[in-house]
Amino acid sequence: MNTGRRAAAALLAAALLLAGCSSGSGGEDGEEGPGPGPSGRTDDGKAAGLRGITLPSWNTGDYSSPEAAAYLRQIAATGARWVTFTPTWYQDGAADAGMHTTGETASDDSLRHIIGLAHGTGLKVMLKPHVDLAKGGDRAGIRPRDADAWFTAYERFITHYATLAADTGAEQLAVGTELAGTSRDGARWSKVVRAVRARYRGPLTYAANYDEYRTVPFWGDLDVIGIDAYWPLADRPTADAARLRDAWKPIMQELAAFSQRQHRKILFTEAGYVSQRGTTTAPYSWTVSKSGGEDEQAAAYEALLTALDGKPWWAGVCWWMWDDWPDTGETPRRLAYTPHGKPAEEVLRRRWHSAGTD
């Protein structure tokens, strides 16, 4: 989900409509995840048995705000074992050769603060840095005129967070998110991954969009395949969980085969549904309708967790997203992605608490 400019992303959602993190078997030991082996992947092919929720930031001080500790306690109360944080840099144009911080970029001090709070709450951490467009638009449209200069800047950006992840003990790191305009460049991305591994020894992933992952050539350099799982599941609004589970069947067949070919598990680095009528027709849209749809959101949560539970190739899910910070939400809370205080939260509590530590 292109988080830095949510309003712009919402405007793109209607056009995208026509375009064609929970594991029931992960235990406490499995959740920790082994370190990378000599081949650059985990020794047994496992990532974390991840039951997670993303807590994004929209401003430099969000992660050090008074609400941070309360949000983490709320996330842990769902049965989540992981939380994802998303520091974001921006570039002014899609063809520019570099990215920079803005007043919307989480400060390093705030990241260190909230990672410490997360660990103190008993949550493991995935750090998932984003690059967005300062004037809005889909980050998949980033296609630099000077690829060498852009990748040099990107390596500087991501190794900064690799060092921070290592220093704070973050348990997993995503080397990129939904950068489809660059992700086919396997040689340059492999160089970036090598630079990250020189600074951080935990498991690595890349968060490919659901329509991008097949064309990513550097999965072999990573420990787990990451997919932001926004597949449309219906052609009309529905709260029929059984129908939505059936919609996952062909997707799961494709993913199982892909996992087998790549010799890596698949982690849903993002998955989510707004509480709006029609969310299952366009899960990537912040503004699919103006009508509430908490029952449809809950059915979509239930369908994903039921359909994927126990699949040997599936490494888990990190849901998009928990609450917005005060005074930053562009979508009213009752219609937003958060499951907090909605039937979808009860789905998480029932599914994740019943899973226990197995």
UniProtKB/TrEMBL annotation:
Keywords: Signal. This is Uncharacterized protein. It comes from the Bacteria. Pfam families: GH113 (PF22612). Residues 1-27 form the signal peptide. Transmembrane segments: none annotated. Residues 24-51 are annotated as: Disordered. Coiled coil: none annotated. Gene3D superfamilies: Glycosidases.
